[in-house]
Amino acid sequence: xxxxxxxxxxxxxxxxxxxxxxxxxxxxxxxxxxxxxxxxxxxxxxxxxxxxxxxxxxxxxxxxxxxxxxxxxxxxxxxxxxxxxxxxxxxxxxxxxxxxxxxxxxxxxxxxxx
Amino acid sequence: xxxxxxxxxxxxxxxxxxxxxxxxxxxxxxxxxxxxxxxxxxxxxxxxxxxxxxxxxxxxxxxxxxxxxxxxxxxxxxxxxxxxxxxxxxxxxxxxxxxxxxxxxxxxxxxxxxxx
Lengths: 114, 116
Hints:
The structure holds two protein chains of two kinds. Chain A is mainly beta. Chain A is built from no helices and nine strands. In chain A, a hairpin with a 4-residue loop joins β5 (55-56) and β6. Chain A is globular. The mean pLDDT of chain A is 91. In chain B, the strands form two sheets. In chain B, strands 2, 4, 5, 6, 9, 10 and 11 form a seven-stranded mixed sheet that branches. In chain B, strands 1-3-8-7 form a four-stranded antiparallel sheet, with no helix packed on it.
């Protein structure tokens, strides 16, 4: 799986958009970008994933650059409960059952301030 | 709909002892993966079980072993505990042939193991 690079920490004001960047310059054509987050003392939680098109769900939006070498996770209106470590993970596609190994880095600690 | 449940939540062992951690997957899931998370680090993949067989394994010694039962629940066993085995052990469940969702993993809250 391709390696990802994320800033170790970021701050965001409550109610503002949080934009979390991720570099994955060695991503292969069949690799997806996944985002998980881990609130303190809890297990990681799936947020969103995408291949090359921008994606949006009830939690966040994922913007992937055209060359797929980087992406940005956007939390449109951050709340205090969004304070967590956010992991950007790249892995081979979802078909079949052999691709569920996730390689976590250290992630980005997002702190949402009141 | 119960999510992934793990037990125990916390436990303390001494060096050389053996430990067994348990996991029940989310309803409808048939695959269980185990991860180790040391303090300040991201989770590291240990192994994955499907159809009661180990399907994938990360870079962990044979002291780490597992089992999956017919009801899809799973156990993680660690023998000859070392101080470095102190960590949060996470169980994640998924559907092996998942053609509907993105194949995301659902994690439990973890078992916090302290080795003294």
